[in-house]
């Protein structure tokens, strides 16, 4: 099976040392849990889950660059995909974040590692848009089709249209924005809880796209790219079934997703994915209490390694 430009073979992950639910993001993240457990026990559970997940990815041939999230002021540091992304040709983007404490997650040592280990031509920093309240929270706000060059994005406070247009112009993507909400009318805060694009398939919470015409356009665009569209129910989305990422392992493509997400899929959906990728369930129930799952914990590296 040939490598796919959609699929990174190396990732950045940040292991949490002070994990908790971020009160600054709870207002518009309906996926966050109300937790009774606090303090060191919670942090230890999240740390252990993350360590086991990294070990499983490495066992399957992934190159994992791990950083330690030791700053207690950054409870969401375990989700690095929101503040930076990497792109073929040597390009890196740094993003404007809505929550003030999430802005503290940006780390020079991560960018320096990318420059040292991979061929980086330029770094475009959009964080200067934050004073104007123009936010674009990375590959949480956008789900990128690296093959067909489309940036799918749910309209939200964390996905500003001006910031999105700037990114798409700089990185040669076509923006495709659509509205999405749950059955209670609560808007979806990040696109990557609703959608995952693999090489040969896409997972999508189709019924949660609230504009019928736009839903058809999104589905058609994905199908025109040669992908099978696997429709996820709202119940499956609530179990993080859309928050997955396809990766390049030693023996072929992998779909990394949580055990929660895997258990929510039905056998026919699993069988269709398995035609293209090996499903790798990772158990991170404590981390999922913060409103993100496996996709959020992984920042894919789409850069050429230095020899």
From TrEMBL:
Q: Which organism is it from?
A: Loktanella salsilacus
* Stretch forming the signal peptide: none
Tell me where on the tree of life, at the top rank, the source sits.
Bacteria
Protein name (record) = Amidinotransferase
User: The organism's lineage?
Assistant: Bacteria, Pseudomonadati, Pseudomonadota, Alphaproteobacteria, Rhodobacterales
Q: Which NCBIfam families match?
A: citrull_CtlX
């Amino acid at each position: 099976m040939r490598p796919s430009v959609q699929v990174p073979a190396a990732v950045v992950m940040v292991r949490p040392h002070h994990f908790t639910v971020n009160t600054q993001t709870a207002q518009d993240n309906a996926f966050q849990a109300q937790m009774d457990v606090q303090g060191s026990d919670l942090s230890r559970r999240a740390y252990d889950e993350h360590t086991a997940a990294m070990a499983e990815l490495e066992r399957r041939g992934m190159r994992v660059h791990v950083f330690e999230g030791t700053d207690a002021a950054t409870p969401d540091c375990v989700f690095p995909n929101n503040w930076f992304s990497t792109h073929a040709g040597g390009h890196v983007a740094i993003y404007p974040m809505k929550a003030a404490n999430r802005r503290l997650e940006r780390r020079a040592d991560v960018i320096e590692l990318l420059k040292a280990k991979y061929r980086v031509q330029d770094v475009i920093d959009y964080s200067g848009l934050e004073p104007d309240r123009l936010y674009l929270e990375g590959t949480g706000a956008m789900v990128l089709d690296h093959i067909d060059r489309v940036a799918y994005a749910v309209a939200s406070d964390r996905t500003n249209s001006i910031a999105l247009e700037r990114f798409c112009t700089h990185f040669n993507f076509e923006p495709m924005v659509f509205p999405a909400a749950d059955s209670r009318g609560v808007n979806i805060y990040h696109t990557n809880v609703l959608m995952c694009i693999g090489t040969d398939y896409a997972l999508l919470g189709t019924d949660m796209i609230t504009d019928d015409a736009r839903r058809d356009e999104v589905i058609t665009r994905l199908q025109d790219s040669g992908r099978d569209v696997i429709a996820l129910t709202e119940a499956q989305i609530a179990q993080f079934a859309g928050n997955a990422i396809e990766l390049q392992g030693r023996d072929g493509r992998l779909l990394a997703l949580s055990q929660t997400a895997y258990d929510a899929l039905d056998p026919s959906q699993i069988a269709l994915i398995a035609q293209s990728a090996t499903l790798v369930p990772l158990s991170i129930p404590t981390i999922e209490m913060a409103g993100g799952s496996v996709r959020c914990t992984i920042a894919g590296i789409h850069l050429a390694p230095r020899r």
